[in-house]
Design brief:
Layout lengths: L13 H6 L7 E5 L4 E2 L4 H11 L4 E5 L19 E5 L5 H5 L25 H12 L5 E4 L1 H5 L4 E3 L4 E3 L2 H5 L3 E3 L4 H12 L13 E5 L13 E3 L3 H6 L1 H15 L6 E6 L2 E5 L8 H8 L6 E2 L10 H6 L2 E3 L1 E2 L10 H5 L4 E2 L2 H12 L7 E2 L1 E3 L13 H6 L19 H11 L6 E2 L20 H14 L4 E7 L3 H7 L5 H17 L4 E8 L6 H13 L8 E2 L7 H8 L15 H9 L6 H13 L3 H7 L1 H7 L1 E5 L14 E5 L11
Parallel strand pairs: 1-3, 1-4, 4-5, 5-8, 10-11, 14-18, 17-19, 20-21, 21-22
Antiparallel strand pairs: 2-13, 6-7, 8-9, 9-12, 11-12, 15-16, 23-24
């Protein structure tokens, strides 16, 4: 077993730079995460990519912004540029819950300690660097920069914000996965092209001053969206921008996007094509130690690393296009899959780690079962503008064969040191239902489902139908809940056939746009009828660059521009969330009152039948009652039967 030396990691201090014999650096990276040298951690990937181009690279993880700012100057001035990322998650998601409460832990910091990552970290770091080194280019990237590249709604400040290029003062933004644009940036810089002239690199964005001409590229057409100033004044026009942004982000032959921002022009160049197999393999095959930097040895484990320490990522991208999800906005909707050989090489590395016990925690990706899936006829995909390949129906041009994935699982399990490989990533259960996935061979779908159930889970299979209401699901770009019923039938059948005693655990979202109180009551009732008592639920969190967030802020659906209601107040959100826990004693009276108020005593009967049976509740239809009631009373309500006692005679 190889023993790692300090020089196996990218240097993080002057001492480590000198150990390598370097006198200067080409690129210095700043990250909101602790430095984990692993292919699942973006800052490490970018550092290793730059290193592979022959550059001298160092990384400053979680620089302090609360002192004399020496972390920003300690490594000196890089020859080429500074690179800045807020980390693997948007810092506001890392720092705050959906209810805007400060989190107690930061998963990307040793011991889970909080306070090492500032809010809006990319902008904070970048502004400091521009103040300290005004003549050195700053290039920003990662999920925070990528999803805030245009005018966007920021949930935590409850404001519409301009492109992060404006707030960060950075010179260039790389959006999406950074390997391809970085390669071109480095190649041009090494040829002597000034950083300020890098205006036609795909998958980058920058701001032009009023007197600067728009760079020419004969292969691109331009599309202009409403300016930031117009968006501030008109929510409907802000909403209309998103349709253009989403469609252009997911096209294989996209237009260049332009937007006026404070007397300057934001330019977003089209994305690169989906990475080829050899390109994504090259990224994962770089010489990662797969471990946190030794500087953290005495500070405690890094929770995010512990979670993925023995996991393998097999692809990028997601063609689901869910309205509340940012994966396709950052990684793209087209799947970039690794070769089986590359995956098995990584499995071998993991299996030979000194503390590996034989169990791989995950063989997956953004959605576990999209490996190797793509369009059958590429020319059809070239013209497609749909944000999802499987909503409202699965595209007839999409190859949804699960055979390569089943074979990959089986190949992984043949490794002599692997006792069991788990599938920890979310599985798209709808794609395993022949009634929905009409492209696939039903026997193949059953073979995959059986493979997962018998060999790759430890007792529970987690899936995410997200809701039971068809109107809400349609807005979410998720299939009807009837397909979850179909999947559960197949799950139960295999469970009985193989005598597995496995549990199916569904995940749901509350207070999503278009969701009403009755929808949540229906969700509670339907899942109760199916035998589920929900334990974990998620409140909708508006994050930049999603359809649902645009609706949340503007009140309009960006594709139809029709008004769409969203629960926004704390009271509305808490009430929707409360339905998940209908079985808790403290919620029962509230549920009765709420459903009686909207005339849904039928749902009271389904959720709390024992209360009616044992406590004397009955439904009364007011149309059959001759008494006169106040107009505010709903058409039906539930009231308690009274035991009448004989009146006492008056004296």
């Amino acid at each position: 077993m190889k023993v790692n030396k300090l020089t196996d990691w990218l240097p993080t201090t002057n001492k480590e730079v000198k150990i390598r014999g370097w006198t200067e650096l080409d690129v210095i990276l700043f990250s909101g995460d602790a430095y984990v040298d692993h292919p699942s951690f973006g800052p490490a990937v970018i550092g290793r990519i730059l290193e592979s181009y022959g550059l001298k690279v160092a990384i400053v993880p979680q620089p302090s912004v609360n002192d004399n700012l020496q972390d920003f100057t300690k490594l000196g001035t890089p020859k080429l540029f500074f690179g800045v990322t807020g980390g693997c998650m948007d810092p506001m998601v890392s720092n705050y819950t959906a209810s805007k409460k400060r989190r107690d832990k930061d998963a990307y910091t040793p011991n889970g300690d909080k306070g090492f990552r500032p809010d809006y970290a990319t902008s904070v770091y970048s502004k400091i660097l521009k103040e300290k080194f005004p003549d050195v280019p700053v290039l920003i990237g990662g999920i925070e920069a990528s999803l805030r590249r245009v005018t966007h709604y920021d949930y935590w400040s409850d404001k519409l914000m301009p492109t992060i290029l404006e707030t960060s003062k950075a010179d260039m933004l790389v959006y999406g996965m950074g390997e391809q644009p970085l390669r071109e940036v480095v190649e041009l810089l090494q040829k002597g092209v000034p950083f300020s002239s890098l205006k036609t690199i795909k998958q980058t964005a920058f701001l032009l001053d009023e007197d600067e001409a728009l760079p020419k590229n004969k292969n691109w057409d331009d599309v202009e969206i409403h300016s930031h100033e117009i968006c501030l004044k008109d929510k409907k026009k802000f909403a209309s921008n998103f349709k253009v942004i989403e469609q252009e982000s997911n096209k294989l032959k996209a237009n260049r996007i332009l937007q006026e921002v404070n007397n300057r022009k934001l330019v977003i160049n089209p994305p690169f094509p989906t990475m080829l197999e050899e390109e994504i393999d090259a990224s994962f095959d770089l010489p990662y130690t797969r471990l946190p930097h030794p500087k953290y040895n005495k500070r405690g484990p890094i929770p995010a690393f512990e979670m993925i320490k023995f996991s393998i990522n097999i692809h990028r991208g997601c063609f689901g296009g869910c309205s509340f999800c940012t994966i396709s906005a950052h990684q793209g909707k087209f799947i970039a899959s690794r070769s089986e050989e590359s995956v098995l090489r990584e499995v071998d590395k993991v299996a030979n780690m000194p503390d590996f016990k034989g169990y791989l925690s995950d063989i997956g990706g953004p959605s576990a079962n999209m490996y190797k899936m793509k369009g059958k006829v590429q020319s059809i995909c070239d013209k497609c503008v749909a944000p999802s390949c499987i909503s409202p129906v699965i595209c007839s041009n999409l190859d949804t064969s699960h055979k390569p994935l089943t074979q990959l699982y089986q190949a992984v399990d043949k490794h002599p040191k692997v006792k069991k490989s788990f599938i920890g990533s979310g599985i798209r259960h709808d794609m395993l239902v022949p009634e929905f996935n009409k492209n696939a061979d039903p026997k193949e779908l059953d073979a995959y489902t059986e493979e997962v159930m018998t060999k790759h889970i430890s007792g529970r299979l987690k899936v995410a139908p997200e809701h039971t209401s068809d109107p809400v699901l349609k807005l979410m770009r998720k299939p009807s809940f009837k397909y979850f019923h179909k999947f559960k039938e197949r799950f139960d059948k295999i469970n009985v056939k193989k005598d597995l005693k496995l549990q199916l655990i569904p995940y749901f979202i509350s207070n999503h746009p278009a969701c009403e109180v009755e929808d949540m009551a229906n969700l509670a009732a339907e899942t109760k009828d199916m035998g589920f008592q929900l334990e974990q639920v998620q409140g909708f969190t508006p994050t930049p660059m999603t359809v649902a967030t645009v609706i949340y802020y503007s009140g309009y659906h960006p594709y139809t521009l029709k008004p769409t209601k969203t629960p926004k107040s704390k009271k509305e959100k808490d009430e929707q969330h409360r339905f998940f826990f209908w079985y808790k004693k403290e919620n029962k009276d509230w549920i009765k009152k709420t459903l009686n108020k909207v005339g849904r005593t039928d749902l009271v009967e389904r959720l709390l039948p024992e209360d009616k049976k044992n406590k004397g509740w009955k439904s009364v239809n007011l149309k059959e009652v001759k008494n006169t009631f106040d107009d505010a009373v709903p058409a039906t309500y539930t009231r308690r039967k009274k035991k009448h006692k004989p009146r006492k005679k008056r004296r």
